[in-house]
Every structure is written in C-alpha cells, then in structure tokens.
Amino acid sequence: MFFPDSFKMTAPGDREIQVVRDFDAPAAMVFDAFTKPELVRRWLLGPPGWTMPVCEIDLRVAGAYRYGWRSERDGSQMAAGGVFRDIVASQRLVATEKFDDAWYPGEALVTTLFAQARGVTRATITVLYESREARDTARRSGMEHGMAAGYDRLERLLPTFNGEPT
C-alpha cells in the first residue's frame, strides 16, 4: 500500500510543528531509512531536482549528523546539522537541528517516534522551535511540500531496501 494521504502537518502548540506519515513497512526498516546515510541520501531530498552530496550520521547519543543539499537546477546549496540526544532503535530519535544559513531563528529540537501496527509504521515528527516566531517562519516556508515529496519518495524506495544497505 501507499499512504501519501496520511501526511498531516499541524501546529499543536505555540512553538511546535508536528508531521505524521504512515509507511507500509516495519518500524525497524523505517528507522533504518531515517538513520543510515546510504538510505537517507536516497530520499531526504525535498522537492524534485535536489541531491544530497553530504550525509554524515554518527548514530549515538551525543553523536552528530550533517546534511548538505544541492539544487541541480541552479546550484544553490543548503546545509543543516545537529546532535542526537536520545535514540531508541526502531522507536525514537531526538536530535537538535540548526541550518547553516538560518531561515528561522535559533535551534530546533526534533523528536521522531516510530509506531508499528499491523505492518504499517507511523512516523510522528515533532519539531520544537525556540520561539513562536521561529515556528511561524518555518510554517510559512512551504516546508510541508518538501517533506511530503521526501516521504513519498521514501515510501516508493522502502520495498527496495529489504533491510539491507543499498
């Protein structure tokens, strides 16, 4: 099954954005897709035309990650990174997030929960911003379009992962 209509973005609090998306795959596979560089760089690209030449993940508490994207259309680049604060395999990731060229003020805290039921995994991503202003700036950015495109790409790729690095 394919669940693009399960993508929902809400603002449950003054400083939060929450995204929910279902995937037709076991939680362990979806967790791997979020944490293994060789898988992440295949789907976490945003809108069509972007690539991810930098994808570094030190998956441990206090370990860092770094993502770098490039637009094939105009050569523009964007990069972000952070530090993992909590990791429970196949269940939860908590990490900070800060963009090199900040488009919202401050740093965010991103909590991703993975819950599996009847072979379907629901990923719930909650981004806690430092202020309401930062949250509102993020909401106005159109981030939901890039996120939805990435998650649709991930869902199409999940059957090819087979629990193995590609």
Characterise this structure.
There is one protein chain. This protein has 166 residues and is α+β, with helices and mostly antiparallel strands. The protein has one domain (4-160): 2-Layer Sandwich (Alpha-D-Glucose-1,6-Bisphosphate, Chain A, domain 4), CATH 3.30.530.20. The protein has helices at 27-35, 37-43, 132-140, 143-161, and strands spanning 8-10, 16-23, 50-57, 64-71, 77-88, 92-99, 108-117, 120-128. It has an eight-stranded antiparallel β-sheet. Helix 1 (27-35) packs across helix 2 (37-43).
Quick rundown:
The chain has 166 residues and is an alpha+beta fold. The chain has four helices and eight strands.
Classified in CATH, the superfamily is: START domain
Number of domains: 1
**How many strand segments?**
8
Q: Strands of the largest sheet, in order across it?
A: 1-2-8-7-6-5-4-3
- Please indicate the percent range of residues in DSSP E strands (runs of 2 or more): 35-45%
Q: What is the H/E order? A: EEHHEEEEEEHH
| Shape summary | globular
Q: How many H/I helical runs? A: 4
Q: In the CATH classification, which architecture applies?
A: 2-Layer Sandwich
Q: Point out poorly predicted stretches.
A: none
Q: Report the end-to-end length measured between terminal Cα atoms.
A: 22 Å
